[in-house]
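Researcher: We're teaching a course module on how sequence relates to structure. For the next exercise, students receive a sequence and then see the predicted structure as tokens, so they can try to spot secondary structure elements on their own. Here is the exercise chain.
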Amino acid sequence: MNDINEIQTIIILIIIIILIKHIELEELLIASYSIEQEEEDFNILPLNLLYSQHNKEINELKKLNKLISNYWFNEICLNMQAFEFKRHFRLTRSTFEWLCCEIIPLLRRNSNEPEVNRITNGFKITRNFPNVIGAINGSHIPIKAPHLFPVDYFNRKGFYSIVLQAVVDHKKKFLDICVGWPGSMHDSRILINSNLYNKFNNQVTTHLNNKYILGDGGYPNLSWLIVPYKDIGRGLTQEQTYFNRKHSQTRIKVEQAFGLLKGRW
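Model: And here is the predicted structure for the students to work with:
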């Protein structure tokens, strides 16, 4: 049975590696846990421990999560006997180390001009929307109620979650993700606190000048982020209504990508 569990875990992680080939990963933050939690709560994939080391956010809650994750990895995981490691994580230490070697080079994949042109041409061909480099949205990932700050993780839909913010291309491939913020946080706040926002606002992405990301009405309208026209009580013009329809038809790629991702499990 242990061998079967290990094979299942390896298959899942290999799928994740394939997905990451299309992701510029900025961070992945696991939900809040206390060090004193029961053993069953500690039974998380070691991949999450790897990602927790990659977290760059400065938010105090994230600092706390990172501190706890580092404690687990440095003080507990690295000191485990081989049989303990396999019992907790359903794979051997050597397999985990191999996966680390496979994943780490993929975490810092930068976009290049040919790739950008491929994406903008793809959106233009499929929906005749020019200069679009991606569609952005957030999705709630259900979790157990954490011991620390549980209210922060209770979302408006009525369950505990962390939020996955993602940008995808015209083929529903993930280009950028930011995950780990509490479920109660609004999409616009998550965006403003993400590295994606910092890159565009600090003009790090100069090769993306005059290119746009499409987002829904929950996001602010920015020079690089286009949202639909809002009806403020006077109604929309025919042109604005047409624009919103095309915008929605193009932006739906990110919703479809979330559906495909969740359908894997």
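Model: If you want an answer key for the exercise: The beta strands are 24-28, 132-142, 161-168, 174-182, 212-214, 225-226. The chain has two domains: 2-106, 113-262.
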